[in-house]
Amino acid sequence: MERYERLLQGGAVTQETYQKYKDQYTTALLNTKQQQRVLGNGAVIAPISGYVYDKKVENGEYVAIGAVIASVINLQDLKLVVNVPEQAVYQLKLGDKASVTAQAFPGVSFSGSVHYISPKGDDLHNYPVEIYLTNNSKNQLKAGTLANANFTFKQGVSGLFIPRRALVGGADSASVYVVQNNVARLRKIRLGYDNGDQYQVLDGLKQGEPVVVNGQLNLTNGAKVTVNQKSGAQGKADTSVAVNP
Questions:
Q1: Which residues are CB-contacts of 111 (< 8 A; sequence separation ≥ 6)?
Q2: Which residues cross the membrane (predicted)?
Q3: N or C of the chain: less Cβ packing under 10 Å?
């Protein structure tokens, strides 16, 4: 532009010609700066530290602005989501400590804390609870690993408990065989707190009613049985009964 400025001052070009080239020069400068910004954005910086586990594009591909090119996972800080029964969730509060274990590392415990408690439960009265934990550098968990969370409550969960092995069907549609006058009656129950070896029974079973804990596979509703062994169980309920159909 210096050349055209000298030509304009010497009267060699008109003001109109000078302005045309000046506008072209200004536009070229703006385009250059824009391309420099585009080149500067060519280096993609991850928002978090971690590992790239899902790459969406290959080298040389054109991508649109805002397109996802890869997914990054942070294994240092993990989130565990567990379903906590209604009877136990009211004893939890944000910041409570949790001991997390996984079958991948027997005997190893990971320390976590409650970060979120859902205000709404599901149809089975279980509430999603999120636990944040710091990964163990020696025994590092991977994302998607099945894990269990154990909470320590100031007061124990009270009520009627039965052994896990007494269940017929899954926890979401649980039933037990109740012995009445040496006859096995299949009865639906509603479960609450799960402490690992035992389930709390919220509905469908009364204290003192004997339930079958062995031999359920050979039983049918209404079958006659003979009680072989009888012992007490947690919650002062007679819930440990072995039978022969």
A1: 97, 98, 99, 100, 133, 134
A2: none
A3: N
Residue 115: half-sphere exposure toward Cβ, Cα within 13 Å: 13
C-alpha dist (Å) from residue 234 to 84, 160, 172, 191? 20, 7, 22, 15
**Under 8 Å between Cβ of 45 and 69:** no
Q: Which residue is listed with tokens 């947690």?
A: 234
Q: How buried is 156 (Cβ within 10 angstroms: 0-12 exposed, 13-18 middle, 19+ buried)?
A: exposed
Predicted TM-score (pTM) of this structure = 0.48
pLDDT score of 128: 95
DSSP state of 166: G
Contact criterion met (CB below 8 Å) for 229 and 163? no
DSSP 62-84: ---TT---EEEE-SSEEEEEEEE
Q: What is the DSSP letter of 131?
A: E
